[in-house]
TrEMBL record:
The keyword Acetylation does not apply. Its main location: membrane. This is Cytochrome c oxidase assembly protein subunit 15. It comes from the Bacteria. It is found in: Membrane. It holds the Pfam family COX15-CtaA. Keywords: Cell membrane, Disulfide bond, Heme biosynthesis, Iron, Membrane, Metal-binding, Oxidoreductase, Transmembrane, Transmembrane helix. The keyword Transmembrane helix applies. Pathway: Porphyrin-containing compound metabolism. The chain crosses the membrane at residues 7-26, 63-83, 90-114, 120-142, 163-184, 212-232, 241-268, 274-295. It is a multi-pass membrane protein.
């Protein structure tokens, strides 16, 4: 059974990543209305006739979401049943189902009724939480398949609350990034790392202010991660799980920042935008796992 769960878990985790990236493509290409104000049907049809480019993009996103959703549901329920004696597994499984349903409902409501940029930014944030809980659940399956217990250790308050701070801070940065996209503020600052040729632009109103706030928050997050990696490297290098996860998170964040700069220099290139979302998605999964790990009782 554990082998089956591993296969399902990998498929579910890859599936939710594809859902997130497909959503990025929908937003980037302006295909949110590609199926009209209809859900789950597309222009009132199961298979749209004479589809436009926008229709194909939106319909593909829905198809991938549906297939991934079924896989996620099966994997999550089976994992919860097989490892029901582990309360943490049940909690994460419930969270995975909750965030999957929440982001799906928000997406459907956005199609039928339309939503503000602030709400659509939350849609991306909940999708990220859906991925993170699935990734954690997949890690649990691999751990429990070997030793029938989850790894644990005693950590200092600095590590525990430092990881929790990074989790909250990262989510804020992710939300601001999604808000930048949904408000069309990606080019609110010309150039990088300066904004319109200035360290602090004279006019911080409108799209410039939104983009600049996201950049400042991202830089602050990089500093926070640098401090956390220094702390772990100095005092917890012997804990390979924590150390390797921290190093991976740091470099994924660096890659995300670099691709963000490429997005600006390339004039919002689609592939750079996809990579920008991909790296932050992977990083957030690692971070969610680390938070649960450091707070687990030894």
């Amino acid at each position: 059974m554990n082998k089956l769960l591993k296969i399902l878990g990998i498929l579910a985790t890859v599936g939710i990543i594809l859902v997130i990236l497909a959503g990025v493509v929908v937003t980037k290409t302006g295909s949110g209305d590609g199926c009209g104000p209809n859900w789950p049907l597309c222009h009132g049809q199961l298979f749209p006739s004479e589809p436009t480019f926008e229709t194909v993009v939106e319909y593909t996103h829905r198809l991938v979401t549906g297939i991934a959703g079924i896989t996620i549901f099966i994997f999550t329920i089976l994992t919860a049943v097989v490892y029901r004696k582990h309360k943490e597994v049940l909690l994460v499984a419930a969270a995975a189902i909750f965030f999957l349903l929440l982001q799906s409902v928000l997406g459907a409501l956005a199609v039928v009724y339309g939503q503000s940029s602030a709400v659509m930014a939350l849609h991306f944030g909940f999708s990220l939480l859906s991925y993170a809980t699935l990734y954690v659940l997949l890690c649990y399956v691999f751990h429990l398949g070997k030793r029938d217990r989850l790894p644990s250790a005693r950590f200092s308050p600095a590590v525990k609350y430092g990881a929790l701070f990074l989790f909250v801070f990262s989510y804020i940065v992710v939300y601001l990034g999604a808000f930048v996209t949904h408000t069309g503020s990606s080019m609110g600052c010309q150039g990088w790392p300066l904004c319109n040729g200035q360290l602090i632009p004279a006019d911080l109103s409108g799209q410039t202010g939104v983009q600049y706030l996201h950049r400042v928050a991202a830089f602050g997050l990089l500093l926070a991660f640098s401090w956390f990696m220094y702390l772990v490297r100095r005092n917890w290098r012997h804990n390979r799980l924590l150390f390797n996860s921290t190093v991976a998170m740091f470099w994924l964040l660096v890659a995300q920042i670099v691709t963000g700069a490429i997005v600006i220099f390339s004039g919002l290139d689609l592939y750079a935008t996809i990579l920008h979302a991909f790296f932050i998605t992977l990083m957030f999964g690692f971070l969610t796992y680390v938070v649960l790990y450091v707070f687990r009782r030894a």
